[in-house]
């Protein structure tokens, strides 16, 4: 039982170290968004009419809402232009679940 305590502390430490940091800071406001696809890179404001290629990019990428803003979280904010992150990179619960599965797997291998 004493061996589980350091493993639990290690797990908690890894979770906090891997906690995704938000790109939303006081300097960057995400007034424009960037969508990348095989057709190119499109930078746009959600208040403007998107080009047909930009609409295709946004609608075929699960990280964006239909109007072009981020569905989950914004990343890489530079000069008020932001990329949108996918759910797995924005949601800390998926990282925690993956880490917990790894710890349980290691413990079960150790028991076997």
TrEMBL record:
Domain of life the protein comes from: Eukaryota
First and last residue of the signal peptide: 1-25
Keywords: Membrane, Signal, Transmembrane, Transmembrane helix
Transmembrane segments: 92-111
The protein's name in its UniProt record: Uncharacterized protein
